[in-house]
Amino acid sequence: MAVPSVERPDTLAPVRHAVIFDLDGVVVDSFAVMGEAFAVAYAEVVGDGPAPFEEYRRHMGRYFPDIMRIMGLPLEMEEPFVRESYRLAPKVPVFDGIVELLVTLRVRGLRLAIATGKTGSRARSLLDELGLLPFFEHVIGSDEVARPKPAPDIVRHALDLLDVPAEQAVMVGDAPTDLASAQGAGVASAAALWAPPDDVDELLAAGPDVVLRRPADLLALCPTVPVH
Q1: Of 180, 181, 207, 210, residue with least CA distance to 193
Q2: Strands (E), the chain
């Protein structure tokens, strides 16, 4: 499917002072490790049979307990899933081009945050393990807001912490829940396709303001922040 790199650029006219990133599928390629952790948790708590990881992936971006409720799986899966996620964290690769993107954005004066479906402690631990934590002023997990994605709470919280108005920020995500959270907070939404998502059509149907094929595409939307 042919997808333009930028859609509706008129919505992206304001100077961006901040970028809010989702974590999994945007900054880190955690799907293989996540699948391994999910399989272990499923075997421990549910028992024999194939773990329904593909269905789990369709709900990515949501808080883990919410996914368990949606899938009708025991909430007890969270403990072994989190344990295995911590154990496997050193094996999680960072997407090509992400480090260069983060360096350039910081040099240009933009402020960066993470808003993730993970818990805040897991997200900060993973980013620290991978050497990325210093790039981000704030890392917010779904357990640190009243309502996780697709509600706008986590993006609004990031804006408050960064002290940046919604029109001066952009949210980069790879799931419809990311885009819905951004849109609900009045923030421009960018769909990241470098994972790529399980269902590109579903992601595009969520109405992103811009579509990014590779991390460097974001730089066109984020020139150097003017110094007053």
Answers
A1: 210
A2: 18-21, 111-115, 138-140, 169-173, 188-192, 210-212
Q: pTM to 2 decimals?
A: 0.91
Nearest to 180 by CA among 202, 212, 213: 202
State both tokens at 182: 């951004």
What tokens does 227 get?
Answer: 């110094």
Query: Distance (Å, rounded) from C-alpha 116 to C-alpha 172?
Result: 11
* Residues 179, 183, 189: CA angle, nearest 5 degrees: 50
Q: Catalytic residue positions?
A: 22
Beta-sheet pairing, 111-115 with 138-140: parallel
- Written as six digits, the tokens of 118 are 């993970």
The Cα 197–Cα 16 span in angstroms is: 25
DSSP designation for 226: P
Is residue 133 within 8 Å of residue 94, measured between CB atoms?
no
Give the model confidence (pLDDT) of 23-64 as tens digits.
999 999 999 999 999 999 999 999 999 999 999 998 988 999
> Which element (helix H / strand E) includes 80?
helix 78-88
Three-state SS at 94: strand
